[in-house]
């Protein structure tokens, strides 16, 4: 009996050892359970960009308050001034690779934020938004070729000039740029109709208006197209209630850019503004045009000129009713990507006086964003 018991115990131990060895072999041969991917610290496709823009401007009129009128970004006279210290973070959508969402944030510091934060006339509260130039999210809806939808605060598409001087022909901005909106808050949609034509529609709180104070939204319709390989054209119409009255503001805007030769670029812009405080008020009007030319003298050196004429009988620009003219000559030296020097001389002729300024601007930037900012 003891012999049978010992034999059974031996067989049981052998079976248990064999099962353990088989289980271990099976576990070694089984594929490892997938581990959750660690989140990316910086998602692919994200660019971090920094810009510093400073200048010294000499106003030959020596204004007592050291302020040059009608200069949104170079208003300080006879001062070393930091115009813009900007940080741009962007992750653009990439539908071709399955990413339909994106976002952009432009934080800005410096004297330019005073112009870009609006005023008491159209911004009930400026402080919360003073250092935010752009902040919007993007979704590309799977409609046809892709319906691009932005929501948030973004730069105004009205006019051909932009906010960052490194991407402009001239350092100072035109009178027309000063008269047009700088930014909007709301929705912006764009759709490529075919070929090189894109249609854009905006529904926003208003012009330079983060918080709606009158309960009415403004609309903007725009078409952009390439008439040929070297000729592009944009036309837009903006309408909305911009004040507390029941009157409306209408803006018609168009501009044309022609790359005449690899070195020579010509452009023209025309704008018309009609604004009423009340529906039965007499309209305030502004009409103007600007011509631009840029010649790339050498890979690192360019010359650019601008001339414009603005009829402002309604005093929309804020320097009184009358006609205004300005002529600007700008030299740009860019020895390397990320550094630029601008020299500029400008003559303004207002209804009551002339104004001459000379300026030197220094621009530094770096980051992964390509092309214009």
Can you characterise this structure?
This protein is mainly beta. The protein has one domain: Beta Barrel (Porin). It has three helices and 16 strands. The protein has a 16-stranded antiparallel barrel. Strand 14 and strand 15 (339-349) form a beta hairpin. The model is unreliable at 1-5, 7-20 and 22-27 (pLDDT under 50).
- Kindly state the percentage of residues in helix: 10-25%
Main structural class: mainly beta
Number of individual domains: 1
Quote the beta fraction: over 45%
Shape: globular
Stretches where pLDDT is under 50 for at least 5 consecutive residues are 1-5, 7-20, 22-27
> Can you count the beta strands?
16
CATH first level: which class? Mainly Beta
Overall residue-averaged pLDDT value: 90
Number of helices, where a helix is a run of at least 4 consecutive DSSP H or I residues = 3
CATH architecture: Beta Barrel
CATH fold name: Porin
Which key terms come to mind for this protein?
3 helices, Porin, 16-stranded antiparallel beta barrel, mainly beta, disordered N terminus, 373 residues, single chain
Blueprint of the fold:
Blueprint (H helix, E strand, L loop, with lengths): L1 H28 L16 E14 L19 E13 L9 E9 L2 H5 L15 E10 L5 E9 L19 H5 L3 E12 L2 E8 L13 E11 L2 E10 L8 E11 L4 E12 L8 E15 L2 E12 L9 E15 L2 E11 L4 E14 L6
Antiparallel strand pairs: 1-2, 1-16, 2-3, 3-4, 4-5, 5-6, 6-7, 7-8, 8-9, 9-10, 10-11, 11-12, 12-13, 13-14, 14-15, 15-16
């Amino acid at each position: 009996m003891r012999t049978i018991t010992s034999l059974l115990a031996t067989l049981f131990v052998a079976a248990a050892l064999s099962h353990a060895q088989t289980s271990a072999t099976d576990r070694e041969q089984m594929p490892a359970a997938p581990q959750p991917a660690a989140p990316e610290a910086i998602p692919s496709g994200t660019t971090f960009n920094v810009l510093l823009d400073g200048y010294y401007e000499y106003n030959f009129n020596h204004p007592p308050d050291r302020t040059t009128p009608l200069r949104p970004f170079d208003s300080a006279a006879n001062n070393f001034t930091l115009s813009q210290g900007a940080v741009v973070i962007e992750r653009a959508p990439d539908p071709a690779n399955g990413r339909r969402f994106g976002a952009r944030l432009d934080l800005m510091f410096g004297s330019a934020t005073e112009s870009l934060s609006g005023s008491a006339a159209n911004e009930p509260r400026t402080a919360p938004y003073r250092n935010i130039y752009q902040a919007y999210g993007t979704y590309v809806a799977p409609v046809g070729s892709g319906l691009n939808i932005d929501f948030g605060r973004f730069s105004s598409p009205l006019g051909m000039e932009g906010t960052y001087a490194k991407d402009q022909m001239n350092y100072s901005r035109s009178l027309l740029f000063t008269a047009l909106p700088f930014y909007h808050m709301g929705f912006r949609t764009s759709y490529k109709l075919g070929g090189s034509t894109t249609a854009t529609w905006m529904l926003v709180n208003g012009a330079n208006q983060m918080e709606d104070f009158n309960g009415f939204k403004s609309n903007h319709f725009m078409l952009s197209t390439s008439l040929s390989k070297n000729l592009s054209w944009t036309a837009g119409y903006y309408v909305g209630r911009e004040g507390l009255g029941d009157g409306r503001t209408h803006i018609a805007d168009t501009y044309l850019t022609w790359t005449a030769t690899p070195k020579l670029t010509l452009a023209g812009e025309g704008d018309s503004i009609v604004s009423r405080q009340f529906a039965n008020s007499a309209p305030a009007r502004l009409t103007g045009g600007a011509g631009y030319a840029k010649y790339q003298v050498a890979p690192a050196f360019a010359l650019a000129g601008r001339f414009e004429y603005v009829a402002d009988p309604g005093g929309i620009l804020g320097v009184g009713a009358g006609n205004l003219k300005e002529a600007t000559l700008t030299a740009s030296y860019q020895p390397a990507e990320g550094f630029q020097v601008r020299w500029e001389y400008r003559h303004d002729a207002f209804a009551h006086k002339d104004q001459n300024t000379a300026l030197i601007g220094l621009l530094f930037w770096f980051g992964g964003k390509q092309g214009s900012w």
